[in-house]
Description:
The chain is α/β, with parallel strands linked by helices. It has helices spanning 3-17, 39-49, 72-83, 98-104, 143-156, 162-175, 178-203, 208-221, 231-237, 248-265, 273-280, and strands spanning 20-26, 59-64, 87-91, 94-95, 108-111, 116-117, 123-124, 141-142, 242-243, 292-293, 304-305, 312-325, 329-342, 350-364, 375-376, 386-390, 402-403.
Amino acid sequence: xxxPERIALIKKIEELRGSTVMCFLTGxxxxxxxxxxxxxxxxIFDHLLLFPSRPVAxxxxxxxxxxxxxxxxxxxxxxxxEFAKSxxxxxxxxxxxAATLIALGxxxxxxxxxxxxxxxxxxxxxxxxxxxxxTGRRLGISVEDVKAYVTFIKTTVGITHEDELIKAVExxxxxxxxxxxxxxxxxxxxxxxxxRKILRTHMGDADGHTIEEIIENMASKLYFHGHPINRQxxxxxxxxxVTVDLQPNLESAMWELYKEYDTQxxxxxxxxxxxxxxxxxxxxxxxxxxxxxQIPGMPAGIQIQGxxxxxxxxxxxxxxxxxxxxxxxxxxxxxxxxxxxTIPMPGQQAIHEDILAQGWTHSLVxxxxxxxxxxxxxxxxxxxxxxxQQDTTGQQSQPAPETT
Length: 404
């Protein structure tokens, strides 16, 4: 199955909902860094420009993502409001963090029985964050982890004396740069502000108390950033505008469409280039004979061990990170990567990642659901050969600077 099958399912959902449907998903494949990023806003705008009229009566966003940039949701919700009288979100599976913020801007949140929202407390990273050893990867700091530390000291441990509290804060700043902690507070305030603006697009100032209660629940009271919010909890406990009574044919169509994207992203396959490369090793390096060098003029029987280059194997991958699709256009963001394993000494392995190409490709959808030739937005000379040191899990060592 492929694009024609996805377009047919999108059209079926449009008929069932009486709406115009756009799909926006990022990959969930383990060990593949995929998230909502700023470049997706322009791509989504190009899809909106293809609408036959403006504004459309009802726009449904089919959404699935683990999250990403904390500033994108406000940009997208504002954009959708420009192009639609009614904006709604269809969630087949995960819509975490930044994706949850997008959902908060919807007039209606349609959740599949398997769907999940998540808390909106941000996890932030900048140049002052601590690094992971030995990879050097910047570690994200959860806003709620910092607040929980202070609460633990004051409430659980029972330390209330000012001098002792100062010592507890000094212990924290000894591990985490003070400016990194300041960055945490700044992003917490920004996330709350964005959530407030997004909710007011359809709730208005008259529901100010309700808005603040929703923000407090989703930013602080759920405690754990990874807490999955099912549709009953979202509706009854958080007071969100969630639809849980789906028509059986709509429910099945949403899930069938999600499975099509699940295959496109290879979400069910663990990405493990180190393991793939290790499986390609023909023999152990120690089993390879080392050549003997004979130097002219040196007495017979005296030889020098030759210098053999370390063994190296490689494999290339095409990874899909994000997709935006509607009935007129299909857009896909991906990277072409090469992973190289070198073995400088027996028992030692080094994995290197080369990003050979990256960018968006776009295909116009014909009336039959077939696609026209692709074109790419990757600039000439796009980053290639970017040698990024990898650990054996294959995770990228540079996290996004601003995420939720």
